[in-house]
Amino acid sequence: MQKEEKKNYLEPFMNGLIKENPTFILMLGLCPTLAVTTSASNAIGMGLSSTAVLVASNLLISLLRNIIPDKVRMPSYIVIVASFVTIVQFLLQGYVPAIYDSLGIYIPLIVVNCIILGRAEAYANKHSVGLSVMDGLGMGFGFTIGLLFIGLFRELLGNGTAFNIQVMPKSYEPAIIFILAPGAFFVLAVLTALQNKFKLKSATNGSAPESNLACGGNCQACGGISCMVNREKLEFDKINEKADKE
């Protein structure tokens, strides 16, 4: 019985970490992924900040899932997520000002990160507190690992450093393009090409696995936040149609 329970808690964690990694598999949260990964330290800062918000919001939403009315659940999620983002922002500003200055506007934008709102709607709203926390940890750490790999790659080639420590020989001439906006797209394109070359399941080649742990796994047909808004609109239209018939 204990083994089954342990397996149940491990499944959502491993799912977010590997099977449905939000960066490399589902291709979610690409705005901060491309914008802040100019260095490994920035990547770690954004990844851990998002993880903290994701875990805390999953926990609270799971606790309140039977209390929040369906008609206002999306606004409720945004209020909950925004509250935790504000707390994280103040903590970074007070204790890690360098990271706070580097990330800038992208810290408040965690509020509308489709990974966080997606997990709230697709998982925390339907599962227990323990499973929701593990799901948040898995998705958060998976997102952090994705940012870290991209950030390391860009910093190493674009600046010759890793975590601001010089690792390339002095004769190395950095390719500045990697720490500029085009470099972010280039790195992402290379990773996507490798996924398709080795036929790894990913959103870009249409083979991401369908799962009840994410928004269906079909990311080609998913519009991120917009798909959730459209679903809310459809539900609202059904309620109005039913009221008109009555």
TrEMBL record:
Uppermost EC category: translocase
Pfam families: Rnf-Nqr
GO cellular component, one term: plasma membrane
Ranges annotated as spanning the membrane: 21-38, 44-64, 76-92, 98-117, 129-154, 174-194
Keyword Transport carried by entry: yes
Localization (cell): Cell membrane; Endomembrane system
EC number: 7.-.-.-
Origin: domain of life: Bacteria
InterPro entries: NqrDE/RnfAE, RnfE
One GO-annotated biological process of the protein: electron transport chain
Keywords (A to Z) from UniProt: Cell membrane, Electron transport, Membrane, Translocase, Transmembrane, Transmembrane helix, Transport
Main location: membrane
Membrane topology summary: Multi-pass membrane protein
Alphabetical list of NCBIfam families matching this protein: PRK12405.1, rnfE
Stated family: Belongs to the NqrDE/RnfAE family.
Function: Part of a membrane-bound complex that couples electron transfer with translocation of ions across the membrane.
Quaternary structure note: The complex is composed of six subunits: RnfA, RnfB, RnfC, RnfD, RnfE and RnfG.
This protein's name: Ion-translocating oxidoreductase complex subunit E
UniProt organism field: Anaerocolumna sedimenticola
Species classification: Bacteria, Bacillati, Bacillota, Clostridia, Lachnospirales
